[in-house]
């Protein structure tokens, strides 16, 4: 059974000191990086994807797939308790925003157009993630 992760709370000044300007805009202000520009979009190494804001394990490389959308895409999170989903009605659209359950950072969105077995596509900004390569 999944446990709720311990919450990380920081001041805006602490977030600004911790994150790059791009990361701050994405994680704290819900911006989006331009398609096909993220450093992890074409990453095919085996390993783990963590929250750039707090280090929480979010996604495993085995769940990553090439959706052609221009952002790293995953079929499911590493654990259902590591991400939170929220209705997002910004820009006149109705979407589901994905945030880190531990620190509340914006990650991207989840769409119901992914492959089996989940049918989901977690479309995540590269700047909201760090990657730890797993050695063979």
Structural summary, described in words:
The longest helix has 9 residues. The strands form two sheets. The protein has a six-stranded antiparallel sheet. Strands 2-1-9 form a three-stranded antiparallel sheet, with no helix packed on it. It is an alpha+beta fold. It has one domain: Metal Binding Protein, Guanine Nucleotide Exchange Factor, Chain A (Beta Complex), CATH 2.170.150.20.
**SSE pattern, N- to C-terminal:** HHEEEEEEEEE
Q: What do we call the CATH homologous superfamily? A: Peptide methionine sulfoxide reductase
CATH C-level name: Mainly Beta
Termini gap: 29 Å
What proportion strand? 25-35%
Largest sheet: 6 strands, antiparallel
**How many DSSP H or I helices?**
2
CATH topology: Metal Binding Protein, Guanine Nucleotide Exchange Factor, Chain A
What is the strand arrangement across the widest sheet?
3-4-8-7-6-5
- Our Rg estimate from Cα atoms comes to 14 Å
Summarize model confidence as the mean pLDDT. Answer: 92
- In one word, what is the shape? globular
Low-confidence stretches: none
State the CATH architecture: Beta Complex
Structural class label:
alpha+beta
Question: Would you spell out the secondary-structure blueprint of this structure?
Answer:
Elements: H1 12-18, H2 21-29, E1 47-51, E2 57-60, E3 64-65, E4 73-74, E5 83-88, E6 95-100, E7 106-111, E8 121-124, E9 129-133
Antiparallel strand pairs: 1-2, 1-9, 3-4, 4-8, 5-6, 6-7, 7-8
């Amino acid at each position: 059974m999944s446990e709720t992760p311990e919450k990380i709370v920081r001041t805006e000044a602490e977030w600004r000191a911790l994150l790059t300007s791009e990361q701050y805009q994405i994680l704290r202000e819900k911006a989006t990086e331009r398609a096909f520009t993220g450093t992890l979009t074409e990453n095919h190494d085996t390993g783990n994807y963590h929250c750039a804001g707090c280090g929480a394990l979010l996604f495993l490389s085995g769940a990553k797939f090439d959706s052609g959308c221009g952002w790293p895409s995953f079929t499911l999170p590493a654990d259902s308790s590591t991400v939170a989903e929220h209705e997002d009605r910004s820009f006149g659209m109705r979407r589901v925003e994905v945030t880190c359950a531990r620190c509340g950072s914006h990650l991207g969105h989840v769409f119901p157009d992914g492959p089996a077995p989940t049918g989901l596509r977690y479309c995540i900004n590269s700047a909201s993630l760090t990657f730890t390569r797993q050695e063979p």
